[in-house]
Amino acid sequence: MAGAKISIIGAGSAVFSLRLVGDLCKTPGLSQSKVTLMDIDEQRLESVYIIAQKYAEEIGADVVFEKTRDLDCAIADTDFVINTAMVGGHGYLEKVRQISEKHGYYRGIEAQEFNMVSDYYTFSNYNQLKLFVEIARKIEELSPNAWYIQAANPLFEGVTLVTRLVPIKAVGFCHGHYALNEIIEALELNPAEVDWQVAGFNHAIWLNRFRYQGRDAYPLLEKWIKEKAQSWSPKNPFNDQLAPVAIDMYRFYGVMPIGDTVRNTTWRHHRDLSTKKRWYGAPWGGADSELGWSWYQESLRKITEGMKTVAKLIKENPGWKLQNLKNHGNKESAEQRFMAELERILDPERKSGEQHIPFIDALLNDNKARFVINIPNEGIIPEIPANVVVEVPAIVDKSGIHPEKITPPLPARVIKYYLYPRMMRMEMALEAFLTGDVRIFKELLYRDPRTKSDEQVESVIEEILSLPENAEMRRHFLK
Ligand code: NAD
Hints:
alpha/beta; Rossmann fold; six-stranded parallel beta sheet; four-stranded antiparallel beta sheet; binds nicotinamide-adenine-dinucleotide
């Protein structure tokens, strides 16, 4: 196999693209691949392009890069389209959040029961959902045999939408399930002897199977809770896998929530900053509090800024090596923040942990491996409809995707009290997007405990639809 043609849409998503580039360069079976980087932001695109080329050159990888701002060019004649684009960027999400807060919706109207993740908008994200469909339709037209691999959020809604509308090969990937390693580490287990399975929806997965050395491992978790949970504290806002909130969810549902699922609970854990601190730990109160999310945005901003500075330095000094830039700038500088990320990417012994490139390698080169993957259910979780995308473990090889049988099954409480309501909101968001029926958008808010009046609902929706970037969404909803 002489490599693959891989297109990355939204390639300016700094760390994500370079992780993929790093993995690709470290995968011998994908040597001679061609990567098309596509983004609408010229400067981000140019920066990723310069660094990717430099990186491949330094480690002697036989990978060719090209860049484009044209979606058709990126999609024509390709094998894999990885979508990591976010229309409007973090700036748009912040605008909607601020408008919402002005109208009494703490952390924004998109913060909803079982969906509190701060860059995961479903109702006010018309432009993002539209881009998903546009990319899928272009794949159908220009590269009908290509795979669509979605990384961008909202993943659950996006992959369900695309697989319902467009007959292409589509999957979604998230790295949330790796948080299971935090439990394995805390319990001091040998990862090779842990038999685990997770199942549910994206950001809504549950540890249905957890065995160690052939025995149920939940008693080991119980022991940890009894002896160590009291002294737990978070190392960063995202470090919540063993936070009091996770234990609280475990106590109610009977199995552990994994990864971003811990962020997606009810208002019991999210009412205000002090509530969040109590359940997710001080000082941040979790990733989705005003403090936790600012921390994340600041770190993303620094990395993006650092990437641009590093790319500029390489452009001006073509003889320089990335390794030489390790000590450039002071310790707190954006370059250093970016270089710390890049160093992990440059490490020849380590892959990023993102599943996209190993998935391509498994399919093309029969490098059989286990993934946690988002695909249409089609019977995998018996209580969920066939055309709803689930996140489940699957073996992938040259013959395709082979989902595992989910055993033991998910507890009835997880299905009925968690997955069903989450699925209902997904259906509401997709119907609102497809039909433009603004009453669905309103219904979401009538059911919201923060809503005190119909007037509040009317005014927040009106202000969001009045944003200049939402002109098309406004026409669609108010036609
Ligand atoms: P970002 O804003 O830093 O990067 C997104 C990129 O998309 C930008 O470079 C932007 O210019 C580009 N873009 C915007 N509109 C575009 C268009 N029409 N066509 C092509 N490119 C376009 O955002 P980020 O923080 O890197 O996040 C990107 C996405 O990935 C988000 O949806 C986020 O929620 C998601 N995400 C997914 C995972 C996962 O594991 N699946 C993890 C983290 C983030």
